[in-house]
Design a protein that fits this description.
inorganic pyrophosphatase (n-terminal core), 6-stranded parallel beta sheet, 5-stranded parallel beta sheet, 19% strand
């Protein structure tokens, strides 16, 4: 059953005590739940995650062949051999090449590099043509980064006296045993959870070459480019990658590299995360498949530039040739993975500060997405692609901002109820900090949103049936056990606990409550809603039933271990019948149900003008065709299904029409006008319908009193 255009999927509670972790770490229970949902389930792991340290980086020599690579590079430096770097023309590759060039330059060595270009048909592989080119330039060592290499090329290079070190490369299994390969993807034992980018692997080589030197110097000079390469490569931002990116971004925003500073200035934004995304976007756009080798050289020179003015002019030229950057904050995938559902008490600046400690975000550690249910819309404004929304819960006001939510233009109404998924942020305006919800998606409860969905038709069809004869016997000596949860705010939580064991009958009267319940069950993703849901009657073959608009005297309440009154009953008689016929009765209804039920009864029970409208509509439609479609009737009358159906039944009992069949197709006859004037409001069915409304008006005044439980 599809209720919304996107699936919201709330992460499952894994059952670990978040309160205990909260106390140990000195953080909120909400932040502890976020950690647990990310697989961080022990104090030690949580401590390392929240407080990553450069000291926790692995020794580079645990990587297989690192000692051999260091030895060969140092031999080349001592012998003043020609060193060539071969890499890929993506952001990760460019950063890796630049890091090695920067390193060798710091030693007074001008290393060479070669980057293949698709525009001349080259692939990312070290082939004989490239080896011959390097040999002609008297090269004796190739450091290949993220490329493809085969046995023939390795052997051919060796025959020419050229050694090859492979960093983060794809290669055949049968390469010569003495081939120097450094690859975290295959170094499973030591790097089980840490597949590094090419930039990360290159950094490991540079660190190993300088292990006896000042490590702070290495961090300050290379981590900025490591961070950009790692983010662009979209590897998991966990373990070592998390440390490299976290500290690398800190270094980036105080970098002394003129090329990076120029790029940062052209991409400047109040949000550092957006600045980095812009910077990477510009480089990715430039490093497209049709890039010329000369343009790659310009990019490398930009990153290594020692003149800020020249670097800035290069960046301006680079930026002017790229289409205007449009940051898409939200993707359009059909499934939204939600970290946690929040309540009003959990939304505070403390939580925002704790979320800051979860940075850097990326694959494996996405920015937390939250769900908030049953918010009331206070105001909203659409400006271009931007959407500003003000919502309220328990008299607390929240500002929301959204993008790509044009579908809600001309739909939202003030005071309607919505659910939202969002990023929790802090905004500053005129020196004042406030909490802001950055909207990812929004879900409505208003009936207009569902007018073309089958579930609303099913609801209205079943709704009209509750008006008919309802006679039952109440034995007040058979009162069941009552569990009073009236007016609890998050009543849907109890449903999951009950459905997971025993047999349960959940009774629902209003469309609003039905949506609330179905949204929740859909969000937690543990139940087949289509199997659980029925209208008017229970499915005797199932242990769990959600029955909408129940015809109570047609349901064996004692068959179920638990009967759950989800929203407010329509009258005292129905309420007492449930209490006396059920075993264990759970009361979950609340004050908010009153408005929904009154609206439902208004939508069901016709007044005289509705009856006149339907009668005229029937005459009009019948004049066009002898066979009527029920949908045509209610669309012509501009009333809902249940009201049209009830109007037709009242008109029949008043002797104005004769209905022979009333399913999807209607076969009826307009009867001759009666000789005497009909008082249609005195018909038994009309009286019964109004009696339903009047009884609810009386019952709602006592529904929340303690003595109502004493039948």
């Amino acid at each position: 059953m599809k209720l919304h255009d996107k699936i919201w999927l709330l992460k499952k509670d894994v059952g670990i005590d978040a309160e205990e972790m909260s106390k140990k770490l000195g953080i909120s229970v909400t932040a502890s739940k976020l950690l647990i949902n990310r697989g961080i389930k022990t104090f030690e792991k949580a401590e390392r995650f929240l407080n990553p340290r450069l000291e926790d980086l692995y020794n580079p020599f645990i990587l297989e062949n690192m000692d051999k690579a260091v030895l060969r590079v140092k031999e080349a430096l001592e012998s003043e051999d020609e060193i060539w770097i071969y890499g890929k023309y993506d952001v990760d590759g460019i950063m890796s090449i630049s890091m090695l060039l920067f390193y060798f330059k710091s030693l007074g060595i001008n290393a060479n590099y070669y980057i293949p270009s698709d525009i001349v048909g080259e692939k990312h592989e070290i082939n004989s043509k490239i080896i011959n080119h390097i040999y002609s330039k008297k090269g004796s060592l190739i450091i290949g980064i993220d490329c493809i290499v085969q046995v023939e090329e390795i052997n051919y290079a060796k025959s020419l006296g050229i050694d090859i070190i492979l960093l983060d490369c794809d290669y055949e299994d049968n390469l010569p045993e003495d081939t120097i390969i450094i690859n975290t993807k295959t170094n499973y034992y030591n790097y089980k959870y840490d597949i590094l980018s090419s930039a990360g692997t290159t950094f490991k080589l540079i660190s190993a070459l300088n292990l006896s030197e000042n490590s702070k110097y290495i961090y300050n000079n290379y981590l900025d480019m490591v961070a950009l390469g790692t983010i662009a490569d979209k590897v998991l931002i966990i373990g070592e990658n998390r440390i490299l990116v976290k500290y690398g971004l800190q270094m980036l925003f105080k970098t002394d590299k003129f090329g990076l500073r120029a790029l940062l200035n052209i991409c400047k934004s109040e949000d550092e995360e957006i600045t980095v995304k812009k910077l990477i976007f510009i480089l990715e756009q430039k490093l497209s498949k049709n890039i010329l080798t000369e343009e790659i050289f310009l990019l490398i020179n930009l990153l290594l530039s020692d003149d800020y003015n020249k670097a800035y002019k290069q960046v301006e030229k680079l930026y002017s040739n790229i289409e205007r950057f449009e940051l898409e904050k939200y993707d359009i995938k059909k499934c939204i993975d939600i970290d946690l559902e929040l309540s009003v008490k959990e939304v505070n600046f403390e939580l925002i500060e704790e979320i800051e400690k979860f940075k850097p975000f990326g694959p494996g550690n996405p920015k937390p997405i939250f769900l908030y249910r049953n918010l009331i819309v206070e105001n909203f404004v659409f400006t271009g692609d931007n959407f500003k929304l003000i919502v309220q819960d328990e008299s607390r006001i929240f500002d929301c901002i959204g993008h790509n939510l044009k579908k809600f233009i001309d739909k939202l109404n003030k005071k309607e109820k919505v659910d939202i998924v969002f990023y929790l942020e802090k905004k500053r305006f005129k020196g004042v900090e406030t909490i802001q919800f950055n909207l990812h998606d929004l879900r409505r409860y208003d009936l207009s949103e569902y007018k073309n969905r089958e579930i609303l038709n099913q609801f209205y069809t079943s709704l009209s049936n509750i008006v008919y004869d309802f006679k039952f016997y109440i034995d007040k000596n058979q009162l069941g056990r009552i569990f009073d949860y009236r007016n609890i705010k998050n009543r849907h939580y109890l449903i999951d606990k009950k459905l997971s064991k025993g047999s349960n009958l959940i009774l629902v009267n209003t469309f609003n409550a039905l949506l609330e319940l179905l949204f929740y069950l859909s969000d937690i993703g543990r139940y087949d809603i289509d199997d659980l849901l029925s209208f008017n009657f229970a499915n005797d073959n199932l242990s769990n039933n959600i029955v909408v608009n129940p015809i109570l005297n047609k349901i064996d309440l004692k068959k179920f271990e638990n009967v759950i009154i989800y929203d407010i009953p329509l009258n005292r008689e129905r309420f007492e019948y449930i209490l006396c016929c059920g075993k264990n009765i759970y009361l979950l209804y609340n004050q908010f149900d009153i408005a929904s039920t009154k609206k439902m009864l208004y939508n069901l029970i016709p007044d005289r003008s509705d009856l006149v409208k339907v009668y005229k509509c029937l005459k009009k439609v019948l004049g066009k065709s002898s066979e009527l479609l029920f949908n045509d009737i209610y669309k012509e009358a501009e009333l809902n299904l249940s009201k049209v159906k009830l109007c037709m039944d009242i008109l029949e009992r008043a002797g104005l029409i004769k209905i022979y069949e009333c399913n999807n197709k209607v076969n009826l006859e307009i009867l001759p006008p009666p000789s005497e004037k009909i008082d249609i409001e005195s018909t038994d069915l009309y009286k019964r319908a109004y009696d339903l409304k009047e009884k609810f008006e009386k019952y709602k005044n006592i529904a929340f009193a303690n003595n109502v439980l004493k039948t």
